[in-house]
From TrEMBL:
<feature type="region of interest" description="Disordered">
    <location>
        <begin position="505"/>
        <end position="541"/>
    </location>
</feature>
<comment type="similarity">
    <text>Belongs to the MAP65/ASE1 family.</text>
</comment>
<keyword id="KW-0493">Microtubule</keyword>
<keyword id="KW-0963">Cytoplasm</keyword>
<dbReference type="Pfam" id="PF03999">
    <property type="entry name" value="MAP65_ASE1"/>
</dbReference>
<keyword id="KW-0206">Cytoskeleton</keyword>
<protein>
    <submittedName>
        <fullName>65-kDa microtubule-associated protein 5</fullName>
    </submittedName>
</protein>
<dbReference type="InterPro" id="IPR007145">
    <property type="entry name" value="MAP65_Ase1_PRC1"/>
</dbReference>
<feature type="compositionally biased region" description="Polar residues">
    <location>
        <begin position="509"/>
        <end position="527"/>
    </location>
</feature>
Amino acid sequence: MTTLPPSLSPSRSQTTCASLLQELQIIWDEIGESDGERDKMLLELEQECLNIYRRKVEMTRKCKADLQNSLAQFESEIAKIVSSLGEHSFSFSRGKGTLKQQISYIRPVLEELRSKTKQRVKEFTETQSQIVKICAEIAGNGQSMMSSDPQVDERDLTVKKLGELKSHLQELQNEKIIRLQKVDSHISMIHELSVVMSFDFLKTVSGIHSSLIDPANGQSKSISNDTLAKLTGVVNSLQQEKQKRLQKLQCLGSTLIELWDLLDTPPDERKRFEHVSSLISSSVDEVLRQGSLGLDIIEQIELQVQSLNVLKASKMKELVLKRQNELEEIYRGVHIDVNSDAARQILINLIESDNVDLSNLLSSMDDQIAKAKQEALSRKDILDKVDKWKHASEEEKWLDDYEKDENRYSAGRGVHKNLKRAEKARILVSKLPSIVEHLTAKLKAWELEKGIPFLYDKASLLDMLEEYTVLRQAREDERRRSREQKRLQEQFAAEQEALFGSRPKKPLAQTNAMVGTPTSRRVSTPSGKHGVSNLKERRETGRVNNVIPVNFVALPKDDPMSRGN
């Protein structure tokens, strides 16, 4: 009977093997197997058992190596994650115990760090996606860049890096807001200009970018540099067109008003185009009414101007003569003499000859009217002083007549009014020399500046003033002689009364009749003509009257002195 090999120790497994060997011995005995064959088979069994042990040992060693490798990888991954997250304050120790215990300790830590990394990567991805999206919108290629997700560098997932990205994103978001405001402002301006000029707003804006009218599939309005440049260009173009149309309408409106004035167009007809005439004094920014600068409005005004120009041509003769009337009225108003009949005949001959452009003729007459108004304005100050002089002269004439009226103090109707007027007249007459002096100075300055004499209804106003001064001086001399003569007569009468005891009856009246006091003499003013000849006649009359003795008195027939003689 074969014994068990020494390697099969009596353990549980060895006991099992021993039992199996005993059973095998019994079978061999029954078979009659030889000892050599039995030993050979036992050696094979022993070798197979050793091989099994070796494989198990190798497997166990490999498992240990795998556990050690896993532990090292976990530690390396933890260090890498801590570095990428920037968790420098993170501390880790694998602890003590078997490999499996150390792995079971480190695994939850690693899972937590992996979760944190995943969350951080998600934040980076979202932030970078928004940055890429806004950059794409600004660049104008949003759809192509939004199709691919941004690549996140997991080597740097620090909070600092994330903060920098979020700060950059905030700047881009602010830039987007500003650009959207610009886009909305430009669109609003385009809408306003389109309304004023009757443009197709939708067609104009959609031609720039379709998203500006109807954003589709959540697409926002385009804020790209190209879109902003196109919007700015369209706004500038529309503003220039608005300026151009407004200037054209203002020009047409001014022409329309001139034609209305020329043709005496009634207010009801003018009211139809009130919306155009109101634009003449408006600035570009003030024109906001819908359709006020539309092409249809401009065409309507152009047709109206053409129609009025045709009517103007047919009424040009009437208009030219009307201008001539206006010119004559201006000259008459400032006492400038014009040959109206000759001027009208010349104009009629020009119109009927068809050799002159009536529009140019009318324009020339407008220039003459403007020149006449300027001339009238230059004469206004002098004419105002002439009116003052005329009024003072008329009051002087009235005062002379009033003072010669012996019954002026008699009780009657209107006496107190005449007394007040006489008082005012004396004050005004006392200023006459000053008025004449100032007027003469003004006249001389005007004539020196213009180089021509100042004519007042064909007569030289300066000559009229000189004539007036001479006549007034002559009149003052006559007044002084009259007062002296009256004084001598009264003195003579007093002497006669002292000698004869009686006073001559009405000596003054008779003396005045004999002496011929110049009651009819009048001072020459701008209303009088032929003043110089009157002055000569009155001087001769004065010399004749002076032949009569100043002490002549007619005595009554019953005077004692005459009887004594």
